[in-house]
């Protein structure tokens, strides 16, 4: 089946969230099953400017073929969370065409789902694949290469309630594995296009999640990160399992040393939830809570479903169950109608909450959203001032939080080897996601039996 894929080299460039990263890894694996050869090189293309990206996108790039050695198949997994993300997706598609002139150029992801007609008119890509057809990438690409009529490559996500059945046995080039367990969103925040390009909420079966993670852990991964478009909404229709149930069940898998969560809505952080997960030895005390603004008036305009008082209570609740948990968040500055007074309320509340880290984003208009048509759009220079003020606050918070662990032994999952000014270090993260560089000589002295520390948990 799909014999014309055998021996074809394939490269995937990923923009956007960790859901996209999981789906890219799974597409690599799917294509490899039919004889494709994944191409990875050491250099990376520049990723998007995070300060111009709407909160929650966490744009990054994975290894892509930019060496001048053309691949046979080049896939760009696009993002559409903001107009800036759309622009970056178009730029990468064009760049991949120039660098791989003889390749089959395939575009997939949220930008494709939102703007398929425009992409086709540009004439740069050979093939588009919708968000809910990524699991079928091998068949669709094989049909194109074989000059067959390509079928079912783009389907309206809002008319397709099925979960896109992708699977992964080992992530490409990562020491931790992102595991997608949910897709879609029903929230319709006024700044967000994602419900229109990902469709309604869909959850993966608990049995499939357990099976996949068991395989990945057997293959050596020690940390998994549960992720989804709206992770907090996970609900297995067949078993009634919630996110809490998923965490508790996977915590029992032998060899799994760390469980980390992607972005969470505050409503999922109940007493029952915290009572359960706080008892699990492999659960990381790191909570990324989706905030967006710390002013109630702005939250209303965003169509967020909580008040800042409710959010603060959630943070206090977490701190009652965990010792010095790492609380991180996303904040949008310069949302339409955000007055100087509104921003000062946000700033004061953020000081009160005292996050470990804040991802600060200047509001970026997104066509097709309610916020794009709102009055009182904020000038860029005002957004810049507000962004800098919050970035300064988060830098101070980060330093103060990390200082609290000075002198304590910490467990670090080693992820890569780096060189800095002639010195060699092994880099990794703690349970609270603090980044640590360990001198090579320390590991050689304390752990002489470990020849390659990458993907080991080291006490430092």
Count of DSSP H/I helices: 13
Helical/strand content category: alpha/beta
What is the β-strand count?
A: 16
Radius of gyration: 22 Å
Provide the residue-averaged pLDDT.
89
Strand content: 15-25%
Q: Unreliable stretches, pLDDT < 50, 5 or more residues?
A: 41-68
Q: What is the H-and-E element order?
A: EHEEHEHEHEHEHEHEHEHHEHEHEEEHE
Shape: globular
Distance N to C terminus: 50 Å
Helix amount, in percent?
25-40%
What is the makeup of the main sheet? 5 strands, parallel
Within the largest sheet, what's the order of strands?
Answer: 2-1-3-4-5
Defining key terms:
460 residues, alpha/beta, five-stranded parallel sheet, four-stranded mixed sheet, 13 helices, globular
Q: Can you describe this structure?
A:
The model is unreliable at 41-68 (pLDDT under 50). The protein has 460 residues and is α/β, with parallel strands linked by helices. The N and C termini lie far apart (50 Å). 33% of the residues lie in helices and 19% in strands.
């Amino acid at each position: 089946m799909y014999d014309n894929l055998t021996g074809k080299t394939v490269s995937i460039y990923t923009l956007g969230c960790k859901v996209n990263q999981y789906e890219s890894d799974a597409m690599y694996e799917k294509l490899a099953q039919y004889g494709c050869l994944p191409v990875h090189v050491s250099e990376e293309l520049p990723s998007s400017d995070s300060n111009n990206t709407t909160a929650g996108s966490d744009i990054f790039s994975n290894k892509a073929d930019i060496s001048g050695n053309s691949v046979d198949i080049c896939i760009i997994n696009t993002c559409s969370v903001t107009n800036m993300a759309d622009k970056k997706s178009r730029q990468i598609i064009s760049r991949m065409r120039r660098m791989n002139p003889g390749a089959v150029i395939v575009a997939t992801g949220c930008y494709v789902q939102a703007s398929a007609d425009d992409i086709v008119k540009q004439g740069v890509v050979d093939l588009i694949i919708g968000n809910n057809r990524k699991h079928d990438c091998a068949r669709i690409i094989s049909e194109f290469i074989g000059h067959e009529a390509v079928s079912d490559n783009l389907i309206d996500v809002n008319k397709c309630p099925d979960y896109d059945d992708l699977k992964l046995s080992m992530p490409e080039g990562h020491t931790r594995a992102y595991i997608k367990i949910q897709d879609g969103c029903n929230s319709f925040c006024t700044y967000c296009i994602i419900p229109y390009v990902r469709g309604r909420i869909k959850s993966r079966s608990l049995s499939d999640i357990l099976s996949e993670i068991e395989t990945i852990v057997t293959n050596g991964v020690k940390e998994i990160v549960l992720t989804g478009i709206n992770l907090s909404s996970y609900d297995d229709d067949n078993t009634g399992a919630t996110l809490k149930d998923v965490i508790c069940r996977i915590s029992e898998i032998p060899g799994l040393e760390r469980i980390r969560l992607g972005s969470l809505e505050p409503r999922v952080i109940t007493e029952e939830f915290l009572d359960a997960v706080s008892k699990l030895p492999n659960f990381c005390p790191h909570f990324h809570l989706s905030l967006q603004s710390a002013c109630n008036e702005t939250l209303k305009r965003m169509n967020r479903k909580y008040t800042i008082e409710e959010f603060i209570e959630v943070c206090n609740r977490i701190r009652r169950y965990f010792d010095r948990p790492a609380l991180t968040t996303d904040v949008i500055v310069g949302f339409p109608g955000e007055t100087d007074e509104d921003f000062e309320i946000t700033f004061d509340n953020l000081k009160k909450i005292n996050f470990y880290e804040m991802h600060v984003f200047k509001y970026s208009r997104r066509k097709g959203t309610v916020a794009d048509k709102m009055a009182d759009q904020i000038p860029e220079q005002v957004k810049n001032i507000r962004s800098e003020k919050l970035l300064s606050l988060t830098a101070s918070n980060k330093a103060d939080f990390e200082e609290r662990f000075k002198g304590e032994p910490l467990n670090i999952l080693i992820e890569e080897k780096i060189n800095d000014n002639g010195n060699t270090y092994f880099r990794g993260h703690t349970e609270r996601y603090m980044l640590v560089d360990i001198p090579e000589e320390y590991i050689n002295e304390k752990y002489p039996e470990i020849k390659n520390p990458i993907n080991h948990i080291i006490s430092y």
